[in-house]
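Re: beginner question about structure tokens

> Can someone show what the tokenized structure looks like for a real chain? I only ever see the sequence side.

Sure, here's an example I had lying around. Input first:
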Amino acid sequence: MKIDEFDYELPATAIAQRPAEPRDSSRLLVADEPLVDTSFAKLPDYLREGDLLVLNDTRVRAARLIGTRPGGGRVELLMLRPHGPEWEALARPARKLRTGMQLHFEGVSAEVVGIAGAGRVRVRLNTTEPEATIAAAGSVPYPPYIIDGPADSEKYQTVYARTVGSAAAPTAGLHFTPELLARIGARGVRLGTISLEIGLDTFRPITVETIDEHVMHTERFDIPEATAAAIAETRADGGRVVAVGTTSVRALESAADQTGAVQPGRSATGLFITPGYRPVVVDALLTNFHMPRSSLVVMVAALLPAWRPAYEHAIEAGYRFLSFGDAMLIPQVR
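And the corresponding structure tokens:
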């Protein structure tokens, strides 16, 4: 299939720059027949007793470091993931960095130990506690389409964020409040968590002509034994596994064996869900509205064949798109 089939016109005015306040006052489009316009606060009305809501509890790393390079010029690093004592990072301006160069940031220095191309470098931080040092010296990065984001970066974390490791937020979860989660639990809906480290590639549009040519990025995930057990119990009792976000879908589907049973533990996934894919774990999906020509829109199209009328309705009805935008519930994935 050509990537043009997953394109649509997204007006700049539809890209949300700030989150809704309170979080659950955002809008919710229920992709049923017919489409239903409602608010996220009413999500419990569309869940059933015995369902299992699976949340990605990853926390966005304060990974944006701004400092100086030799000679005093500005340098910016976006710390992506550790590789032993070294870190993979996106650098700006990468073209001015050289192996062996010392970079200086607030409270820490870093040595450039490798140049990978496409703006990526490897650095070694001068610290024995890199996560704590990055947290102290860095700031949370917003997606490139957020021009005027909130001053409080906690707005870009879910209320249940726990495991530091992502370069971006699991945005479908940004709508939840502790009170809403309590109301969902009171309806007999169980909650389970997974952790998937979201990389920057999630924002990038597909640049090849057909989706078959696209090489999907790899992301690491961890599924607790309690979540795997809850999925098995939910399916045995006839409930739905409702994935909160595309990241939860990738993790759960990647961890399933040939019988559809989810295996707990740590792993990595390069799963690219495209039209024709049949989910073996996930029954329903809660997600935001995604960038044209992205792997996320391709996934939505695989799980909701009528995705285009839903997106067209959302644009015409004034829904807010992308990370700080509104949400869509697909009550039964195809």
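Each token stands for a local structural state, so reading them left to right follows the chain. The mean pLDDT is 95.
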